Automatic annotation (TrEMBL):
Residues 2-235 form the ABC transporter domain. It comes from Alkalihalobacterium chitinilyticum. This is ABC transporter ATP-binding protein. It comes from the Bacteria. Gene3D superfamilies: P-loop containing nucleotide triphosphate hydrolases. It holds the Pfam family ABC_tran. Keywords: Amino-acid transport, ATP-binding, Nucleotide-binding, Transport. GO terms for molecular function: ATP binding.
Length: 235
Protein backbone atom coordinates (compact mmCIF):
# COMPACT_ATOMS: atom_id res chain seq x y z
CA UNK A 1 0.00 0.00 0.00
CA UNK A 2 2.72 2.46 1.05
CA UNK A 3 6.26 2.20 -0.28
CA UNK A 4 8.99 4.72 0.41
CA UNK A 5 12.42 4.34 -1.17
CA UNK A 6 15.40 6.46 -0.13
CA UNK A 7 13.26 9.39 0.94
CA UNK A 8 15.30 12.40 2.03
CA UNK A 9 13.85 15.58 3.55
CA UNK A 10 15.75 18.77 4.32
CA UNK A 11 14.79 21.80 6.38
CA UNK A 12 17.13 24.33 4.79
CA UNK A 13 20.60 22.85 5.23
CA UNK A 14 19.46 20.44 7.94
CA UNK A 15 18.87 16.89 6.75
CA UNK A 16 15.84 15.78 8.81
CA UNK A 17 15.31 12.45 7.01
CA UNK A 18 17.94 10.54 5.13
CA UNK A 19 17.34 7.68 2.70
CA UNK A 20 14.22 6.38 4.43
CA UNK A 21 12.97 3.14 2.92
CA UNK A 22 9.84 1.73 4.43
CA UNK A 23 6.74 -0.16 3.38
CA UNK A 24 3.33 -0.82 4.87
CA UNK A 25 1.07 -3.50 3.43
CA UNK A 26 -2.69 -3.35 3.41
CA UNK A 27 -4.18 -4.41 6.75
CA UNK A 28 -0.96 -4.06 8.75
CA UNK A 29 -0.41 -2.11 11.95
CA UNK A 30 3.17 -0.90 11.72
CA UNK A 31 4.96 0.95 14.52
CA UNK A 32 7.55 3.66 14.04
CA UNK A 33 9.66 3.95 17.19
CA UNK A 34 11.86 6.93 17.85
CA UNK A 35 12.89 9.41 20.51
CA UNK A 36 12.01 13.13 20.49
CA UNK A 37 13.41 14.78 17.41
CA UNK A 38 14.22 11.49 15.61
CA UNK A 39 12.10 12.52 12.62
CA UNK A 40 8.78 10.72 13.12
CA UNK A 41 6.60 13.80 12.59
CA UNK A 42 8.66 14.87 9.58
CA UNK A 43 8.18 11.45 8.03
CA UNK A 44 4.41 11.71 8.56
CA UNK A 45 4.43 15.19 7.03
CA UNK A 46 6.29 13.85 4.01
CA UNK A 47 3.78 11.01 3.61
CA UNK A 48 0.87 13.49 3.94
CA UNK A 49 2.37 15.81 1.33
CA UNK A 50 2.99 18.61 3.84
CA UNK A 51 6.75 18.63 3.23
CA UNK A 52 8.34 17.75 -0.07
CA UNK A 53 11.25 15.30 -0.12
CA UNK A 54 14.36 16.41 -2.00
CA UNK A 55 15.09 12.84 -3.05
CA UNK A 56 13.51 9.42 -3.21
CA UNK A 57 10.45 7.65 -4.44
CA UNK A 58 7.04 7.45 -2.79
CA UNK A 59 4.30 5.11 -3.97
CA UNK A 60 0.78 4.84 -2.56
CA UNK A 61 -1.28 1.95 -3.93
CA UNK A 62 1.19 1.75 -6.80
CA UNK A 63 0.90 5.44 -7.79
CA UNK A 64 3.81 7.88 -7.62
CA UNK A 65 2.66 10.58 -5.20
CA UNK A 66 5.64 12.84 -4.49
CA UNK A 67 4.46 16.44 -4.79
CA UNK A 68 0.75 15.55 -4.54
CA UNK A 69 -1.06 18.14 -2.37
CA UNK A 70 -2.14 17.22 1.17
CA UNK A 71 -5.88 17.53 0.38
CA UNK A 72 -5.51 15.14 -2.56
CA UNK A 73 -3.59 12.71 -0.35
CA UNK A 74 -6.47 12.81 2.17
CA UNK A 75 -8.98 12.25 -0.63
CA UNK A 76 -6.96 9.22 -1.75
CA UNK A 77 -7.09 7.79 1.78
CA UNK A 78 -3.89 8.95 3.50
CA UNK A 79 -5.02 10.60 6.73
CA UNK A 80 -2.89 11.83 9.58
CA UNK A 81 -3.82 12.41 13.21
CA UNK A 82 -1.16 14.90 14.27
CA UNK A 83 0.74 14.99 17.55
CA UNK A 84 -0.86 17.35 20.06
CA UNK A 85 -4.41 16.66 18.83
CA UNK A 86 -4.90 20.09 17.21
CA UNK A 87 -8.57 20.41 18.14
CA UNK A 88 -10.63 23.58 18.04
CA UNK A 89 -11.22 23.85 21.81
CA UNK A 90 -14.18 26.25 21.73
CA UNK A 91 -16.05 24.30 19.10
CA UNK A 92 -18.22 21.34 20.05
CA UNK A 93 -17.12 17.74 19.75
CA UNK A 94 -19.61 17.34 16.87
CA UNK A 95 -18.21 20.37 14.99
CA UNK A 96 -14.65 19.10 15.43
CA UNK A 97 -15.61 15.69 14.09
CA UNK A 98 -17.50 17.22 11.18
CA UNK A 99 -14.36 19.06 10.08
CA UNK A 100 -12.72 15.70 9.40
CA UNK A 101 -15.63 14.72 7.17
CA UNK A 102 -15.04 17.24 4.39
CA UNK A 103 -14.60 14.34 1.97
CA UNK A 104 -18.39 13.84 2.40
CA UNK A 105 -19.27 17.48 1.71
CA UNK A 106 -21.60 16.48 -1.13
CA UNK A 107 -22.92 13.41 0.63
CA UNK A 108 -24.97 14.08 3.78
CA UNK A 109 -25.70 10.39 4.35
CA UNK A 110 -22.00 9.52 4.11
CA UNK A 111 -21.27 12.14 6.76
CA UNK A 112 -24.02 10.77 9.03
CA UNK A 113 -22.82 7.21 8.61
CA UNK A 114 -19.19 8.11 9.41
CA UNK A 115 -20.32 10.07 12.44
CA UNK A 116 -22.32 7.11 13.74
CA UNK A 117 -19.30 4.83 13.23
CA UNK A 118 -17.14 7.22 15.26
CA UNK A 119 -19.78 7.46 18.02
CA UNK A 120 -20.04 3.64 18.09
CA UNK A 121 -16.29 3.39 18.52
CA UNK A 122 -16.20 6.15 21.17
CA UNK A 123 -19.66 6.14 22.87
CA UNK A 124 -18.55 8.87 25.31
CA UNK A 125 -18.28 11.28 22.37
CA UNK A 126 -21.95 10.74 21.56
CA UNK A 127 -22.80 11.80 25.15
CA UNK A 128 -20.52 14.82 24.90
CA UNK A 129 -21.20 15.79 21.31
CA UNK A 130 -22.44 19.30 22.20
CA UNK A 131 -19.70 20.06 24.75
CA UNK A 132 -16.74 22.27 23.78
CA UNK A 133 -13.87 19.95 22.83
CA UNK A 134 -11.58 21.89 25.18
CA UNK A 135 -13.70 20.88 28.20
CA UNK A 136 -12.99 17.15 27.69
CA UNK A 137 -10.30 15.12 29.47
CA UNK A 138 -7.00 14.45 27.67
CA UNK A 139 -8.04 10.92 26.74
CA UNK A 140 -11.40 12.09 25.41
CA UNK A 141 -9.72 14.83 23.38
CA UNK A 142 -7.45 12.20 21.85
CA UNK A 143 -10.59 10.24 20.93
CA UNK A 144 -11.96 13.35 19.17
CA UNK A 145 -8.69 13.73 17.27
CA UNK A 146 -8.71 10.08 16.16
CA UNK A 147 -12.46 10.28 15.44
CA UNK A 148 -11.93 13.35 13.27
CA UNK A 149 -9.27 11.48 11.27
CA UNK A 150 -11.64 8.51 10.86
CA UNK A 151 -14.34 10.85 9.51
CA UNK A 152 -12.12 11.24 6.42
CA UNK A 153 -12.46 7.50 5.66
CA UNK A 154 -8.75 6.64 5.80
CA UNK A 155 -7.24 3.70 4.01
CA UNK A 156 -3.94 4.46 5.75
CA UNK A 157 -4.27 6.14 9.15
CA UNK A 158 -1.11 7.69 10.57
CA UNK A 159 -1.21 8.32 14.31
CA UNK A 160 1.51 10.55 15.77
CA UNK A 161 2.09 9.82 19.47
CA UNK A 162 -1.53 9.18 20.48
CA UNK A 163 -0.47 8.21 24.02
CA UNK A 164 1.33 11.49 24.72
CA UNK A 165 0.38 12.96 28.10
CA UNK A 166 -2.22 10.31 28.92
CA UNK A 167 -2.47 8.34 32.19
CA UNK A 168 -1.35 4.68 31.96
CA UNK A 169 -4.87 3.26 32.21
CA UNK A 170 -6.11 5.56 29.44
CA UNK A 171 -3.08 4.67 27.31
CA UNK A 172 -4.03 1.01 27.56
CA UNK A 173 -7.60 1.83 26.52
CA UNK A 174 -6.34 3.98 23.62
CA UNK A 175 -4.13 1.20 22.25
CA UNK A 176 -7.08 -1.21 22.50
CA UNK A 177 -9.11 1.18 20.35
CA UNK A 178 -6.28 1.57 17.82
CA UNK A 179 -6.12 -2.22 17.50
CA UNK A 180 -9.88 -2.30 16.97
CA UNK A 181 -9.66 0.38 14.24
CA UNK A 182 -7.04 -1.78 12.51
CA UNK A 183 -9.20 -4.89 12.85
CA UNK A 184 -12.08 -2.92 11.31
CA UNK A 185 -9.97 -2.76 8.12
CA UNK A 186 -7.90 0.44 8.41
CA UNK A 187 -4.16 0.09 7.81
CA UNK A 188 -2.27 1.91 10.58
CA UNK A 189 1.15 3.51 10.85
CA UNK A 190 1.72 4.42 14.48
CA UNK A 191 4.54 6.69 15.67
CA UNK A 192 5.25 6.20 19.35
CA UNK A 193 7.75 6.58 22.13
CA UNK A 194 5.69 4.19 24.26
CA UNK A 195 7.38 1.22 22.61
CA UNK A 196 6.04 -1.54 24.77
CA UNK A 197 2.34 -0.72 24.34
CA UNK A 198 2.74 0.13 20.65
CA UNK A 199 4.67 -3.04 19.77
CA UNK A 200 2.21 -5.22 21.63
CA UNK A 201 -0.62 -4.30 19.20
CA UNK A 202 1.57 -4.15 16.08
CA UNK A 203 2.51 -6.59 13.37
CA UNK A 204 6.03 -5.19 12.97
CA UNK A 205 8.00 -2.01 13.31
CA UNK A 206 10.79 0.34 12.32
CA UNK A 207 13.17 2.29 14.54
CA UNK A 208 14.18 5.79 13.48
CA UNK A 209 17.17 7.64 14.95
CA UNK A 210 18.49 11.02 13.78
CA UNK A 211 16.44 10.83 10.58
CA UNK A 212 17.53 7.33 9.60
CA UNK A 213 15.90 3.92 9.87
CA UNK A 214 18.36 1.99 12.06
CA UNK A 215 16.39 -1.20 12.54
CA UNK A 216 13.26 -2.98 11.39
CA UNK A 217 11.68 -6.28 12.26
CA UNK A 218 8.74 -8.24 13.55
CA UNK A 219 7.22 -7.28 16.86
CA UNK A 220 9.04 -10.22 18.52
CA UNK A 221 12.41 -9.29 16.98
CA UNK A 222 12.11 -5.72 18.24
CA UNK A 223 10.78 -6.74 21.66
CA UNK A 224 13.67 -9.17 22.16
CA UNK A 225 16.41 -6.86 20.95
CA UNK A 226 18.60 -5.72 23.86
CA UNK A 227 19.32 -2.28 22.39
CA UNK A 228 15.64 -1.63 21.74
CA UNK A 229 14.77 -2.79 25.24
CA UNK A 230 17.41 -0.47 26.76
CA UNK A 231 16.54 2.55 24.63
CA UNK A 232 12.77 2.33 24.34
CA UNK A 233 11.35 -0.19 26.78
CA UNK A 234 13.57 0.37 29.81
CA UNK A 235 14.04 -3.22 30.91
P1 LIG B 1 8.82 14.84 18.34
O1 LIG B 1 8.13 13.63 18.81
O2 LIG B 1 9.56 15.56 19.43
O3 LIG B 1 7.97 15.73 17.48
P2 LIG B 1 9.95 13.72 15.98
O4 LIG B 1 10.62 12.39 15.97
O5 LIG B 1 8.57 13.78 15.48
O6 LIG B 1 10.01 14.31 17.42
P3 LIG B 1 10.52 15.82 14.09
O7 LIG B 1 9.52 16.77 14.64
O8 LIG B 1 10.23 15.17 12.80
O9 LIG B 1 10.88 14.70 15.17
O10 LIG B 1 11.92 16.59 13.96
C1 LIG B 1 13.08 16.01 13.37
C2 LIG B 1 14.19 17.02 13.37
O11 LIG B 1 13.86 18.08 12.46
C3 LIG B 1 14.42 17.68 14.73
O12 LIG B 1 15.81 17.88 14.88
C4 LIG B 1 13.70 19.00 14.61
O13 LIG B 1 14.31 19.98 15.43
C5 LIG B 1 13.86 19.34 13.13
N1 LIG B 1 12.73 20.10 12.61
C6 LIG B 1 11.42 19.75 12.67
N2 LIG B 1 10.66 20.67 12.02
C7 LIG B 1 11.50 21.62 11.57
C8 LIG B 1 11.34 22.82 10.82
N3 LIG B 1 10.14 23.24 10.40
N4 LIG B 1 12.46 23.55 10.51
C9 LIG B 1 13.67 23.13 10.89
N5 LIG B 1 13.92 22.00 11.59
C10 LIG B 1 12.84 21.26 11.93
Amino acid sequence: MLKLTNLTVNYGKFEALRDISLNVEQGELVVLLGANGAGKSTLFKAISGLVKPVKGEYLFNGNKVIGVSPDKMVASGVVQCAEGRMLFPQMSVYENLKMGGFVHRKDKNGMKKSLEEVYDLFPILRDKKDDPAGSLSGGQQQMVAIGRALMAKPKLLMLDEPSLGLAPLIVEQMFGIIKQINENGVTVLLAEQNASAALSISTRGYVIESGKIVMSGSKEELFNNDEIRKAYIGA
